[in-house]
Amino acid sequence: MVVEEKTTQTSKVLMVHKKDWKKVGEEFYGKDMMNWELKCPSCGHVQSEISLLKHHFKNERDGNGKELTIEEILKRLKGKEKWFYISYECEGRVNKGYGCHYVNGGFIQLHELLVMDEGYRRRTFLFANDEANKKLREFDVYDEVERIMEELKKRCEDAGNNWDDFAWDNWIPEKAKESILRSWNIWERTPMSWFKNRREYEPTHGERVKRTKTTYDKKEYVIEGRYLHRLNGCGLIITDEGEVEHV
């Protein structure tokens, strides 16, 4: 069968928080995420983690010559590194004859959903159920994110070529401003250059985020606060106490 694949994005990307995405998924498919059915945005193939595993192990047999149950398959995979992400790539990448080779994050971008997870942006396939996707749109924050970024863009434009005229948010401490200016107040770089340098996957300006960092002696600690873009996909987290962490 010839699978017709899309090569261009055809609709506005939805942006929803992870808690809302899980809420809708559980409402339509139950709490076990292995049963959630998602649709590839390129070829329309419908896949779930259970169906993918059954297809992948369909030629293997147990000691009695019978097809493996999903429980037996999971036992074989226990402790092994995850080798497939059902919400991110089409089944055809691992199971010939099922779907195509599309993957979110490749050269062609067709994803229609970004799941916001404590500051991360997860490019995710939509549900296979149209009613579930309709419900998901009730939690869409795309327009609010656009409003925030348009307001920041206007401040950058109003400042022109002079960083001295840029209107900083009152939650940004001097230490954070100095970090931004060390990279951007040189070589005729302008506030607008800084704005355009932001990557799609970065958190929204001022969005509350959480990150886990590791010290030199391998101790982990969690930082929470508001996000501020710095340079080339990297940023700063401004804690509620006004501390500045590079991420």
TL;DR?
The protein has 247 residues and is α+β, with helices and mostly antiparallel strands. The protein has helices spanning 18-29, 49-56, 70-77, 130-136, 142-159, 174-184, 191-196; strands spanning 14-17, 38-39, 46-47, 113-117, 120-124, 126-127, 208-214, 220-231, 234-238, 244-246. Strand 4 and strand 5 form a beta hairpin.
Short descriptors:
247 residues; 2 domains; three-stranded mixed β-sheet; 10 strands; disordered N terminus
Task: Provide structural commentary.
Strand 2 and strand 3 form a beta hairpin. This protein folds into two domains: 14-139, no CATH class; 148-246, no CATH class. The strands form three sheets. The protein has a four-stranded antiparallel beta sheet with strand order 7-8-9-10. The protein is an alpha+beta fold and 247 residues long. It has helices at 18-29, 49-56, 70-77, 130-136, 142-159, 174-184, 191-196, and strands spanning 14-17, 38-39, 46-47, 113-117, 120-124, 126-127, 208-214, 220-231, 234-238, 244-246. The chain is built from seven helices and ten strands. Helix 1 runs antiparallel to helix 4. It starts with 13 loop residues before the first strand and ends with a strand. It is elongated and about 75 Å long.
